[in-house]
Amino acid sequence: MITRSLQPENQETPTQFIETDLIPSHLFYRRNHFSYPTLSAANYWIPLNGSVNTPTLFSMQDILQLPSKTINVVLECAGNKRSLFEPKVFGEQWGKGAISQGAWKGVPLRALLELAGIKDGAKEVVFEGYDFGKRTDLDRVYTFTRSLPIAKALHPDTIIAYEYNHQPIPFKHGFPLRLIVPQWYAMASVKWIKQITVINQSFKGPYQSIDYVYYPHKETNEDARPVTTMNVNSTIQKPLDRDILDTGKHLIKGIAWTGKGTITKVEVSTDNGQTWSNVKVNKGDNKGYKWVSWSHVWVIAEKGEYRIMSKATDSFNRVQPLTPLWNRKGYGYNAVDEIMVKVE
Amino acid sequence: MITRSLQPENQETPTQFIETDLIPSHLFYRRNHFSYPTLSAANYWIPLNGSVNTPTLFSMQDILQLPSKTINVVLECAGNKRSLFEPKVFGEQWGKGAISQGAWKGVPLRALLELAGIKDGAKEVVFEGYDFGKRTDLDRVYTFTRSLPIAKALHPDTIIAYEYNHQPIPFKHGFPLRLIVPQWYAMASVKWIKQITVINQSFKGPYQSIDYVYYPHKETNEDARPVTTMNVNSTIQKPLDRDILDTGKHLIKGIAWTGKGTITKVEVSTDNGQTWSNVKVNKGDNKGYKWVSWSHVWVIAEKGEYRIMSKATDSFNRVQPLTPLWNRKGYGYNAVDEIMVKVE
After folding, report:
1. Pairing mode of beta strands B225-226, A248-257
2. What's A96's domain CATH number?
3. What domain count does chain B have?
4. Could you list the residue range(s) of the whole structural domain that residue A193 is in?
5. In angstroms, what separates the C-alpha of A145 from chain B's closest C-alpha?
6. Are B244 and A90 an interchain contact pair (Cβ–Cβ within 8 Å)?
7. What CA–CA distances, in Å, run from B179 to A110, A130, B147?
8. In terms of CB atoms within 10 Å, which end of chain A has fewer, N or C?
């Protein structure tokens, strides 16, 4: 793990070194706004209230008895790769490891909403976490609270999860219950759920209206828009940036993922982007909400410095751009991935 | 620990988060050229041969029975902070954590050399480690082998160490015996010592004549000179780079160290280097070969972006420069340390 801060705890997954596609929880990146909350699982209830016919208190027992599903999901922090923005932006300087993947088991949120009965005019569902603290910019204590539009809340794969990789969710990742929102950046997947509220308007909490917003301009809030689905993206795992290699055969490998549809193509360039080759994508990965692994054998006879780049395309024809969309808070970096190597 | 590579294992100490001045071995940075060697401590002998009157085989028992000393030493990889060079250079992209500090106990090398008797005309002492492997640039297997000039070899604080922080040296850090060369960059402190040889000429192995050489020019080897003593240097531990802070009082803290004499002054600037303040240095640290801790209370009322810089001076009047000495292999980075923070 690569530590970015300890209070609150923010650590990256060493993605470059990981071979497995179900990341064990001790290697799962940790991204927190606040200190870890204290809560008692022994007496744990989730209230579902607001614009519903029957406000309901769900016990853990209630949730465990409902039909469950297990989904494999990439969770990527909206700030993943933030340190790559030029000009640089403030905030946690994530490298390429604020991303992870694993199997989450839980109950579709939809089932809980149907039990309580959503009233007409309901627009969003708000999730409050147990974690709280002060912000630097506002003089008040806030819990980490976010909302989903009603359509995403009703999506059958938006789940209230209680297991990660076939074990109870580790405390640091949201025990006992965590919202899992596939395809969205991971700020949407609220940990340590305290309550769920259906509302008739747009939720305006600071983690929705101030943070997790793309601000394309440094000085003004013009053209701001919310951070939602993950951009199409890829990361080169091997070789490492600035590696020194000998001449001969080398395996270039990595991962690619998207928040819309599936990955349809990964291309690699070893000549500064002049030519691109389609590379081998592990098709078995391309189901559910997983990343795909890809690899390419590179035979290099000539000594010199080489820029290796990877570019993914998804089934909505979204392609990684050469230049990222710069935004003041540094979200959603997805430019073509690149590393430099020296062959000697 | 921050992983830079796994084969061989290269990991950084999370220096920014460390409060103690004796770094526990599991947090000690790891820098290897090769895979870990296999060797048997049960049947471990060190030959001391070459230009000596009595070539001698020392057993562990022999070494443990000689008078010992314990010294507190900063060990810094010559490539520490390499990733900060502009233009970027190839090799392990170390951040600011390829540095550590602890208590090493062992026998002065001098005692062994005196027992064997150095012949007239001896110029250097060569240390061969058990670790070996192929280089990318030469078509042969090499052990990691380095030499010291005879004067440094005879320095009473150059020791053959067998304990780290009052425990046997952990295997990854050179068990059972490791050379410790205070004040030099840590490539000199050869791990897993296999043999010691006194020679009458200059040693020319690749880890001395190709690597660990400052090459100030990109294309030629002109003005090359060997990497030896550590440059005067400092690192800001807190705040973290690109942190977002509120207005008010903040502690700026860090460490400073040098390979010549002691640290005499640490200055901090919070206004882009226009003005500098002498900061509080923990004088208790300034003995042996330790780093010093320093801190400064910063009261900031005005919102904005701030560049925080630290600059150390040693007792030989060496001062951290504003611009590092760029060199092709990226050694000895010691420019004034700097971070950016945003106050909101």
Report:
1. unpaired
2. 3.90.420.10
3. 2
4. 2-211
5. 20
6. yes
7. 65, 52, 11
8. C
